[in-house]
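As a next step, the fold was encoded as tokens, giving this record:
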Amino acid sequence: MKPTVPPIQRVNDFVVKFANVNGSGSASANLLFAKSILRMGVPVAPRNIFPSNIQGLPTWFEVRISEAGWRGRRGGVDLMVAMNPQTWDQDLKEIEPGGYLFYDSTKPLPPSKFRDDITVIGIPLTEICNREYTDSRQRQLFKNIVYVGALSALLEIDPEEIAELIGEQYKGKEALLKPNVQAMHMGRSYTENNLDYPLGIRIKRANAVGERIFIEGNSAAALGCVYGGATVAAWYPITPSSSLAEAFTRHCRKFRTDAVTGKSRYAIIQAEDELASIGIVIGASWNGARAFTCTSGPGISLMQEFIGLAYFAEIPAVLFDVQRGGPSTGMPTRTQQADVLSCAYASHGDTKHVLLFPEDPKEAFDFAALSFDLADRLQTPIFVMLDLDIGMQDWLCEQLSWDDKRSHDRGKLMTYEMLEAGKDFGRYLDVDGDGIPFRTRPGTHPNRGSYFTRGTTKDRYARYTEDGATYVDNMERLLRKFETAKQYAPAPIVRNASQATRFGAIYYGSTGPAMDETLASLTAQGVHMDTLRVRAFPFHDTVSDFIAAHEQVFVIEQNRDAQLRSLLVNELVVDPAKLMPVLHYDGTPITARFILGEIGDKLAMFNVTPLRKVAP
């Protein structure tokens, strides 16, 4: 049937979405599809949207193909690979008018199950696999590779790139390698012999990837821990942070194992729960090691008491919060930026913690390494605020880099020589006004520099006291230290529009890639907007200046309660009415279309309309 809308015609600029059943082995095949396009020099941005059960529920895998290099989700689907009857109706609705539907046509479907404004491509995948294989598991697994082969013909993907990737995946496993390559060619041959191809959307070899790398955020952060000097990790399994600890284990086996003796120069402990994990980290850090834990929102909730101890006793610690949908168990395999407030003020009483907001795996690596310097310099817990989208997805990003001349900043340490010379040592004594006292590590001196570490109130020399004035003195010093943190934490990135504007936008973390594309679309429409990407809390003075310089500022984030906006209002002298929230929190990564639509609706309230329309 000829579609009522002309088929989409695009090269290296479209979205393919796979609708599968979890546990069917589809994720590896879909990633193989994405990587084959990457090997042809065309940037891709894949997103694996999977359920929290092991098998049976729907799962989706979305691949954004963009020679322009956009890394965020666009919104909408140009080609739907519909492999899950449970979600057929929902998947069908997502296809753009003029788009394409690819499905298993073994079982005939009535015309009512299709749309008249899309192109339908049916291949009898089950029939092909049933004819070729006798084992039921093989039939399912190879069915995925067969459709990758079919898509290679429809989209003009070089089959040699796919075969090479299969060869790398199954190197040394000939029993698996040859059947997978054969299955791929089966799908391609069927398409070439029975269907019109290629489609209006297709891949053309390009040179747009450059020297960038394809890496998962949790793995990059774990490698940053190694370069940052971490030797101790304590963790309790929780989605989506577990792969960070697992990656750290792999990196340590490679980089922290003595080549001569084979002895491990690291300690990785899977504790009995989250509270024990942070307790181990605090103990290791107190003893002078660089230590971290990785968790998600529920883990942060359980760690509150020990976080407060580390803050008040001033013990370095690093926590990676790979955020997911909450509250409670929430959506364990969906992404959000919903722990901003719970981390900024973690524990009871008056606390304020340093937060770092990486945008992608490159910054996850950089900020992970930096976090240990900050923890030692500031003698306090540091939170690296990842999320599932950064942590568990593969991203195309700039190469990770390290200056071999860089040394670790261990902060203010009272040495043996200083103590021997009679230098006054007060564990909580502010000697230069920055709020950061000197500390000693165990064994620094045989009879000087010792102190009692306590979570109760104390004076400047760590002596127990309940004197109110002394308590206030200590709490105000902690505020001075928090102020000092501004000069060490990553500064925000400001981008000014090409001409003066009344409007600004503030965003952070994984919202960045979608925001980049939104900004380009607004500029193309003749709408000018300055932007500021927050990279750390406490907020740099630049943030206050940015807000003051604009009549209205959009704050774009991925949670229901506008948590960053609340933090801005609470911490800065700012009129809340100036900050307009743009909130996305359905658990999927935010899209450029969503941001553009929300900002467009709000700009209309101020009689701002685009000078020209641009296709989304």
Observations:
- The two ends are 28 Å apart (CA to CA).
- Residues 12 and 203 are 5 Å apart (CA to CA).
